[in-house]
Design a protein that fits this description.
It is a single chain. It contains 10 helices and 9 strands. The protein has about 300 residues and is of the alpha/beta class. It has one domain (about 5-305): Rossmann fold. Strands 1, 4, 5, 6, 7, 8 and 9 form a 7-stranded mixed β-sheet that branches. Strands 2-3 form a two-stranded antiparallel sheet. It starts with a helix and ends with a helix.
Length: about 300
């Protein structure tokens, strides 16, 4: 598992990189030009720890929403607390989903979460399965072993620097126009919450560490993917925040600990920030395009009738 510094710095890199951008630079047309990603149910993108919906028009999932829309998908982008438990964030997401369903007549959603967005969407699938068609996690922690927890010491560091963490979360919320979202560093007990989720929401969780889970549970499809790139590009400032650990990881989340349902692939040459196509799409040489990955996953869901 990563140190607290690496997680916080990684999120801060993405946020800081977005700040200088202008609305005109970030936005593009959303005219549908194909049906490649035209899923039956809308896609919901959910950001991770210290993440954001968008800042000055720059998406957390850089260029992903527009690309999906141009390929025929209906896309919603959630706004949840930057610093809080996955359960609290899940309730915030569920509230938005119910509002979208009431407004647009949507019956179900395809949920895609990056980093802490992953346990966030698992929570919703567990408490409101009638609203969920599929769950796709990108570099989302599912299991944290005792050894990994001891190695990272993350909870102790969050406790010791709770004020700084909450300030950072509040700042990101403010600049992203979501100042009303509550921030609570004391609620970030990731290992304890994941252990609890394994009991309360076991759908898709592998029976053995680094294995695969059931791909279809209760009518909901479960997919996961993650990277094992740490230092991917000398020009990418996000590399500075990534930490090399004993197990393969993306610099923030252990690959084996991110397995859920059908594992599409767990060794993409991406770091934790590359997986959301930041910083501004800068990748390692020869690395696949993360935007295309999201398009391909939408196409996979489309072909499953989702």
């Amino acid at each position: 598992m990563p140190t607290f510094r690496s997680l916080l710095a990684a999120a801060a890199v993405a946020c800081t990189a977005a700040l200088p951008a202008t609305q005109a630079l970030a936005q593009s047309t959303t005219t549908t030009s194909s049906t490649y990603a035209a899923t039956k149910y809308p896609i919901v993108l959910v950001h991770g720890f210290m993440g954001f919906k968008d800042i000055f028009g720059v998406d957390y999932f850089y260029k992903v929403p527009d690309s999906l829309r141009k390929s025929g998908a209906k896309v919603y982008v959630a706004a949840v607390s930057e610093v809080n438990s996955s359960s609290v964030r899940g309730e915030q997401l569920l509230k938005q989903m119910r509002e979208w369903a009431a407004k647009d007549g949507v019956k179900k959603f395809n949920l895609i979460g990056h980093s802490q967005g992953s346990p966030t969407i698992r929570y919703v699938a567990g408490v409101a399965p009638e609203l969920v068609s599929s769950v796709t996690t990108m570099a989302g922690p599912v299991v944290i072993t005792d050894a990994q927890a001891a190695d990272s010491n993350i909870e102790k560091l969050i406790t010791n620097y709770a004020g700084l963490v909450q300030f950072a979360g509040s700042f990101v919320a403010f600049v992203s126009g979501q100042w009303q979202l509550p921030q609570d560093a004391s609620a970030l007990k990731m290992k304890a919450e994941l252990d609890d989720f394994a009991t309360r929401f076991p759908a898709g969780v592998p029976a053995t560490y680094c294995g695969e889970g059931a791909p279809l549970v209760g009518g909901i499809y479960y997919f996961s993917a993650s990277g094992t790139g740490v230092k991917t590009n000398a020009w990418d400032i996000s590399d500075l925040a990534m930490q090399q650990v004993s197990e393969p990881s993306d610099g923030a989340v252990i690959a084996c600990g991110a397995h859920l349902g059908k594992v599409i692939r767990d060794d993409y040459p991406w770091n934790h920030i590359d997986e959301m196509n930041h910083v501004f799409g800068l990748l390692g040489k020869g690395a696949p395009d993360p935007v295309q990955w999201y398009l391909s996953q939408a196409n996979r869901l489309k072909n499953l009738g989702r």
